[in-house]
Automatic annotation (TrEMBL), chain A:
It is found in: Cell membrane. This is Cytochrome d ubiquinol oxidase subunit II. It is a multi-pass membrane protein. The chain crosses the membrane at residues 12-45, 91-109, 129-151, 171-191, 203-223, 235-255, 276-298, 318-340. PANTHER family: CYTOCHROME BD2 SUBUNIT II. The keyword Membrane applies. Belongs to the cytochrome ubiquinol oxidase subunit 2 family. It comes from the Bacteria.
Length: 351, 530
């Protein structure tokens, strides 16, 4: 589908600005909730209660702020790209409902495990936290895979069935995201903990890094064949030159990542943060790669961002509030992360 | 045909929305009022310097944190359900209601980002003035959350300030007219006042419960002549929960015996709640009447269903009870007061009130008895609130406010009345605007997502199970907090536990101090050693 040519002024720029903002909100969500969901996914590898306590304490101050970006992504989509919201959400009905329920359950389990009155209760809240995290990660990955595969549209509505989201590819992306989140979680623990938990996190980071890299390779290999537009973007000549840096950078980051992991000392400081930041870089590049494939579609293959956009009057009205509040929220979030820098130990408890 | 009896995908989608939104609204209905109550308590404390205000403030602050957290959790689901289940509505009305809801999200977000955490954990760290500011901003913020979401809701009832495109989409023309659409001021006033009353009834019930418990303790002494401390008897006689078990009473004895009369914090709660009911419950009746007048003007079919009027009449009666029968187009077995409906709707003894028969059948609310009975439930509860407030006023004049067991029992029984009334009111307004989502323009049947019946049935079942488990646990925990005796030197919210309502505030940094570092998970501050 060609870009509309009659767009000028705000009608051109507002959808673009909002597409970037929504993409940014989703990416911030993936980065930030990614590592705390990852902690839940890694729970089965932490046999000691004390280890689980420390692991949870590393995310306790920030996990909820992380999740609110999801609300902004969802709520924002309704306001500024109502057509995309109205087509994508029904198409992904089951995975999204399961994700919401998993997040509700996991959130409450997170709080209740601190209020448990005995070990059995805590064990069950731990399980709820872990299973909820796994289900949330898996369903998010499935939703992503189903979305990328393309959504069947008739007129302005979803036209597929309620199991369309389930395919070998979406299951692959579901598992891939679980591995990726587990990697982020392990690297986060590598940065934020010391002693035996740090050592264990290093082992887990190796394992899940291999799994993530394998998944990235597999998904990237399949992607161009999902939709003709993707193949044209990645495999035809002039585009290839523009797109090629992405996989090359990915390869470079993977090399740096394993290098950083091998150099890991556990002595603290920003050296310990390197694997985490490089893993985030890997996520960012995969996201950019996804963007390269999709651009400028918001509901592949039916609608681009201008076709799905709300009128400029709607997008402009909300942009005023977003322009004021989002920078404040970002600054505040940064401040909180800075405040909780440094290692978390068993003695330091929740704070 | 059994098919005709089974619900359709549309029915289930409607029920799912109703189920999730009713669960959700229980929490904001309570916290909107509670935030203001906390601001008032803190203000009174700063003004008078009396410890009783601070202690009561801290008691309710812990409860606020938990209730707010559940409101946030259940709210996330709502922001997705417009898309998952009501996609056509989202596509068509999204450009208008989307930004209003977007502002609601940003407001709530902003609150979480800052002031809530300071309010919860910062009293000993940021200084009194700044803390008061944080509390006031949280109260203002919860109001603005309600403002935006009710504006969006009101627009669906009384759309204004838009253009309807040929393809059926609504696009904004005038944001001022959209936000302040005709029913919005009335709905906002009526709903927020309802939230205040809800809070007052819960606060009053909790205060009354502790007064009654103490009162019974004293009576047990008188009757049996047992020599024992009041607290210990309270624990023995009434309290099965571990928190106020006999062991803890001993710890409290020292401080309580130095106070004259029944628990001053419980008295404060009960007294303020009774003042609130006495003054605000009648105001709410007036606001409700005005809101009804607005509905009469803009949504006559809804109003006729509320009143049970099928025939257009001059001097229409107010039907107290009856059986509205949509098939027959009659309200049977009426008990009615002649001319009264004309009087309060048209302010004219013989004013004309339109009945449903003069409105096209396909614009009638789909479930008239539900609207009719929900309305009576709400109004009935409203009159009970006025009654309770009046009785409270009378007993106060006689100096018997705190030691009249039947009054305390009535207040306890009325504890959930506000929650019931706002739920009934919500049913009146939402079931009453059927069969439309955008009143007069977009039908509910044309608004739903193309989701197959088994999918909606599955998700609904999952919501029911998860909500009862999760919010059941939350409400159980709230009741545990209610049952703790409000004490002098009431503690701050428990510091060893993360809570969602702390948001992304660096709560632990404001609480960093000797107490915070050693807090094990079980040491909720108010709990005495056991």
């Amino acid at each position: 589908m060609d870009l509309p040519t009659d767009l000028s002024g705000w009608a051109f720029w507002l959808p673009l600005i909002w597409a970037v903002l929504i993409a940014l909100a989703v990416f911030l969500y993936v980065c930030m909730d990614g590592f705390d969901l990852g902690i839940g996914i890694l729970f089965p590898f932490m046999k000691e209660k004390a280890e689980r306590d420390v692991a949870v304490n590393t995310v306790a101050p920030v996990w909820d702020g992380n999740e609110t970006w999801l609300v902004l992504g969802g709520g924002g989509l309704l306001a500024v790209f109502p057509l995309a919201y109205a087509v994508v959400l029904p198409a992904l009905y089951m995975p999204l409902i399961l994700m919401l329920l998993a997040l509700v359950f996991r959130g409450v389990a997170f709080e209740m495990r601190f209020r448990a009155e005995n070990d059995t209760q805590q064990l069950w809240w731990d399980r709820a936290f872990s299973w909820g995290s796994m289900l949330a990660a898996f369903t998010q990955g499935i939703a992503l895979g189903a979305f990328v595969q393309g959504i069947q549209v008739e007129g302005r509505a979803y036209a597929g069935g309620w199991w369309d989201w389930l395919s070998p590819f979406s299951v692959l992306t579901g598992l891939a995201l679980m591995a990726g989140y587990a990697l982020l979680g392990a690297c986060w623990l590598l940065w934020k903990t010391e002693g035996p938990l740090h050592t264990r996190a290093a082992t887990l980071a190796w394992r899940f890094a291999l799994a993530t890299v394998g998944a990235i390779a597999l998904v990237s290999a399949i992607m161009p064949f999902l939709q003709p537009a993707f193949a044209a973007r990645w495999l035809s000549f002039p585009n290839l030159l523009l797109a090629a840096p992405v996989p090359l950078l990915v390869a470079f980051l993977i090399w740096r990542f394993f290098h950083a992991l091998a150099e890991d000392t556990g002595h603290g400081g920003m050296v310990d943060a390197r694997p985490f930041l490089l893993a985030l870089g890997l996520f960012a590049l995969s996201y950019v790669g996804l963007g390269v494939s999709m651009w400028p579609m918001i509901v592949p293959p039916a609608f681009n961002i201008w076709q799905a956009a709300a009128p400029p009057a709607s997008q402009g009205f909300l942009l005023v509030g977003a322009a004021v509040l989002i920078p404040i929220i970002l600054a505040y979030t940064g401040y909180v992360y800075w405040l909780f820098r440094g290692k978390v130990t068993h003695e330091s408890g929740y704070h | 045909m059994i098919d005709a009896l089974l619900p359709s995908a549309l029915d289930l989608a409607r029920f799912q929305f109703a189920f999730t939104v009713v669960w959700h609204f229980l929490f904001p209905a309570f916290t909107i009022g509670l935030a203001s109550y906390l601001a008032v308590l803190e203000g009174l404390w700063l003004w008078t310097g009396k410890a009783v205000y601070l202690d009561t403030f801290r008691y309710w602050l812990k409860i606020f944190a938990v209730a707010f957290a559940m409101g946030v959790v259940s709210g996330i689901v709502m922001s997705y359900q417009f898309g998952t289940n009501w996609s056509v509505l989202s596509d068509k009305a999204g450009p208008v209601i989307g930004p209003l809801m977007g502002y609601e999200v940003l407001t709530a977000f902003f609150l979480e980002a800052g002031f809530l955490g300071v309010m919860l954990f910062g009293l000993d760290r940021v200084g009194k003035g700044l803390h008061m500011l944080a509390t006031a901003l949280v109260a203002t913020g919860t109001f603005f959350s309600a403002f935006w979401i009710l504006s969006a809701n009101s627009w669906l009832h009384t759309p204004a300030g838009y253009t309807l495109l040929p393809d059926g989409r609504f696009v904004p023309e005038d944001w001022w007219a959209i936000i302040f659409n005709p029913s919005f001021p009335f709905r906002l006033a009526h709903t927020v006042t309802g939230a205040y009353l809800t809070t007052a009834l819960i606060v009053g019930a909790v205060g009354a419960w502790h007064l009654l418990r103490e009162h019974r303790g004293h009576r047990a002494v008188r009757d049996t002549g047992m020599e024992s401390t009041p607290g210990a008897r309270t624990g023995d006689v009434l309290s099965p929960d571990p928190i106020s078990a006999p062991g803890s009473a001993a710890a409290r004895r020292g401080t309580e015996s130095s106070e004259a009369g029944p628990n001053p914090r419980a008295r404060l709660m009960f007294s303020m709640a009774m003042w609130m009911l006495l003054i605000v419950a009648p105001i709410q009746a007036v606001l409700g009447d005005l809101h009804g007048g607005n509905t009469f003007e803009h949504q006559p079919a809804k109003l006729a269903a509320m009143e049970g009027h099928f025939h257009t009449e001059r001097g229409a009666p107010a039907i107290l009870f009856g059986l509205p029968d949509a098939e027959a187009g009659e309200t049977r077995m009426q008990v009615a007061i002649p001319n009264l409906a004309s009087l309060y709707l048209t302010h004219d003894w013989n004013g004309e009130v339109r009945g449903l028969r003069d409105i096209p059948r396909d614009q009638w609310p789909t479930n008239i008895p539900l609207v009719f009975w929900s309305f009576r439930t709400m109004v009935g509860l409203g009159f009970l609130m006025i009654g309770l407030g009046t009785l409270g006023g009378i007993m106060r004049l006689r100096g018997r406010l705190f030691d009249t067991p039947w009054l305390l029992r009535a207040a306890i029984a009325m504890g959930p009345a506000g929650l019931l009334a706002v739920t009934a009111g919500w049913i009146v307004t939402e079931a009453g605007r059927q069969p439309f989502t955008v009143y007069g323009h977009l039908r509910t049947a044309d608004s739903a997502s193309p989701i197959a019946l088994p999918a909606v049935a599955t998700s609904l079942a999952a919501f029911v199970v998860v909500y009862f488990v999760v919010f059941g646990a939350g409400i159980w925990y709230l009741f545990k907090l209610f049952s703790q005796t409000p004490r002098p030197q009431e503690g701050a919210p428990p510091q060893g536990q993360p809570i969602r309502s702390a948001g992304i505030t660096p709560a632990p940094s404001v609480q960093r101090g000797p107490a915070a570092s050693a807090a094990p998970a079980a040491s909720a501050a108010p709990q005495p050693a056991e």
